[in-house]
Design a protein that fits this description.
Layout lengths: L1 H14 L3 E5 L3 H14 L6 E2 L10 H10 L2 E5 L13 E4 L11 E2 L13 H11 L7 H9 L6 H7 L17 H30 L3 H5 L5 H20 L1 E3 L2 E6 L6 H12 L3 E6 L8 E7 L4 H9 L6 E5 L2 E6 L4 H14 L5 H4 L5
Length: 356
């Protein structure tokens, strides 16, 4: 099934007169989009990113793209179902989600794929099988950015690159590919879709991961580092913990909540941490990010979404996000942990209004 699906996707992309790509704004989505651009001759201007930190793909954006392109590829996002998209939308994703389109390459729907595979590694697999993976380090940047630099698909691609790119230089914690991933992610944390557009431009022109890390994108890393340090320190002092699962809040215009959650895991020895950012994203939504070790944080955030207005949650057991319009995220956290940790179901209809 996998081989047939990959061949079909390649044939569809080759046969299309024009192809549009919509990708998540993180390193996984951006490097996956860049890989497809190079392999299937898609222009930089034909790549779109959800605006202002919007979670997923806005339905109106997908409809507009289907009016302009024969085929639309969604990378690291699962788009909504729209009329006329069944045989024209290709989904390359790794998050648990409904299979709304027949051409969906996702480990949760294709059994031959290992679950710990990034979307960018999947684009690298497609390009490699088509004989068009010219810079194999490119999709590895997204895998590193998502912390999924392991597994059979990644390892196959990793064997194609210079081993020095996978080894930290003396005195450094990150190898060159991880360093490039951190640089790309910093751009989107500060400027969201605009940062993603700048990062895509750099990735399409770079001859090595070193050029990515040393590009103008590096200026974003200082701001991210400063905000992360400030809020991680505050969060470690104020975190609310329930049976090893922590909740904290930040107030930053920089998208650092996931980084702070990761720091809480290390500093407090938690098995799961969720962090709410009380500054609205440019798209108008609020966000909670979660990180975990051996705990299904995606299930926790999905449960939290029941108690918040206009909420959408997604991700995988190690990292997940929740966007919502309004509501009390701490109250939602307390109710969700009661639900998941006690095993005693809560009926939200009896105590609080449900979302939507």
């Amino acid at each position: 099934m996998l081989h047939a699906l990959v061949r079909k996707v390649s044939r569809v992309l080759d046969a299309a007169e024009n192809v549009g790509i919509v990708a998540d704004i993180d390193a996984d989505g951006i490097s996956g989009a860049a890989t497809l651009c190079e392999a299937f001759r898609v222009e930089e201007g034909d790549v779109r990113f959800p605006p202002g930190g919007f979670y997923g793909v806005p339905e109106e954006l997908l409809r507009e793209m289907l009016e302009s392109y024969d085929v639309v590829v969604a990378v690291d996002v699962t788009p909504p179902r729209v009329a006329g998209g069944r045989d024209r939308v290709i989904v390359i994703d790794h998050h648990p989600s409904p299979a709304r389109y027949p051409m969906t390459i996702n480990p949760h729907h294709v059994r031959a794929l290992p679950k710990n595979t990034s979307a960018s590694a999947l684009t690298g697999m497609i390009a490699h099988r088509a004989g068009r993976l010219r810079r194999p380090w490119l999709p590895l940047i997204g895998a590193a950015g998502d912390g999924l630099d392991r597994g059979p698909v990644y390892e196959t691609l990793a064997r194609l690159v210079d081993p020095e790119l996978l080894t930290p230089p003396p005195g450094r914690k990150l190898n060159p590919i991880q360093d490039a991933a951190a640089t790309v992610n910093a751009a989107r944390r500060v400027e969201y879709h605009k940062g993603a557009e700048r990062a895509l431009e750099v990735l399409l022109l770079a001859d090595s991961p070193h050029e990515v890390a040393e590009s103008h994108l590096a200026r974003y890393r200082g701001k991210v580092r400063a905000e992360r340090g400030t809020w991680s320190e505050r969060a470690s002092r104020t975190v609310h913990v329930v049976l090893g699962v922590g909740y904290a809040e930040v107030h930053s215009e920089v998208d650092i909540e996931g980084l702070v959650a990761q720091d809480l895991l290390r500093r407090k020895g938690l098995r799961c941490a969720v962090v709410y950012n009380s500054v609205r994203k440019p798209c108008g939504l609020l966000k909670v990010s979660g990180r975990a070790r051996g705990f299904p944080v995606n299930e926790l955030l999905t449960e939290m979404a029941r108690w918040l207005d206009g909420a959408r949650a997604g991700g995988h057991p190690g990292a997940a996000a929740l966007h919502f319009r309004s509501g009390d995220p701490k109250e939602a956290f307390n109710r969700a942990t009661d639900e998941l940790l006690s095993g005693e179901p809560i009926d939200p209809e009896s105590t609080a209004p449900r979302r939507r």
